[in-house]
UniProtKB/TrEMBL annotation:
Belongs to the otopetrin family. InterPro entries: Otopetrin. This is Otopetrin 1. PANTHER family: OTOPETRIN-2 (PTHR21522:SF32), PROTON CHANNEL OTOP (PTHR21522). The chain crosses the membrane at residues 24-44, 81-101, 113-135, 147-170, 182-205, 226-245, 257-277.
Amino acid sequence: NTTEESETESCYEDVTLARTASPYLFPCTIIYSIIAAGILYRMYQYVGVKVTQRWPSHTSLTSSNPHGAVSMDCEKANKGLFSGLLVAVFTLIAIATFFVFESRLNYPHTAIKIFFVLEISLILITGSCIMLGMIRFVNLKFLENYLSLDAVLLIISLGGAYIYLSFMLISSASMVEKHGVISILSLAAICVGILESTLQAIFILDGLCRRAENDIQVEAKPGRAIVTFLLVCNLALWVVSMFEIKKTMVVPFHLEFYGILPWNIMLHLCVPLFIYFRFHSAICLSKIWYNAYQKDYSPA
């Protein structure tokens, strides 16, 4: 019996690749389901709808530049792309440093401080660019009564992010005296995260309804560099959020405050939506990047 018990314990204690990767991969199943549901809904919308031909019938599909094809214009996006890639590189370096301190050097407190500083810095940079983008987008034409599936999915994922951040806010505020600096950094990251998520959702929902009103705006493309930068920053934040489970493993006070079962239930329900919010924000920003600078021909 003793031998069997020891074998059973060793089996559960073995560190396998699947067990190591599972905290990072389980949100992907829920995110995949949300994306699949959205795609199926779009397919349902187009069932029985006559689709106009993209290219004229006389144009060869193998032509390098068929008449009527939509070209991708990357004008006015270079500065935002370069700045965003720079931020992404620093993000990857910081994440690598986090894992070095947490796993190799066994300094979890230093590791989590690095992670929180990275997260706060990214959110502050993104938030400031969002406010600048709002100013640049004011002059674009606003389409009324425009509600897309992307907007609905963004609002749903934002709700999950609010729930998750609110629960963490409560536990962090309750553990300030006990855990000191780490709890304060956690509070700061949560507060700026809630504010930035709200601003970003407002900006995206507004941006999805914006179109260029005249040829001058089509040429000038106001705010396109900012949208490009925000797109890359959201991809960086998405990568950071993928390690959210790892962060909660290193930070002790959330589990300590709520207990094992409630905290795990909340993680499995809210973290996928929190991660999806960042991913879907990047998708919406890519649509704004393209659609906002197309001239609107609808009657005034």
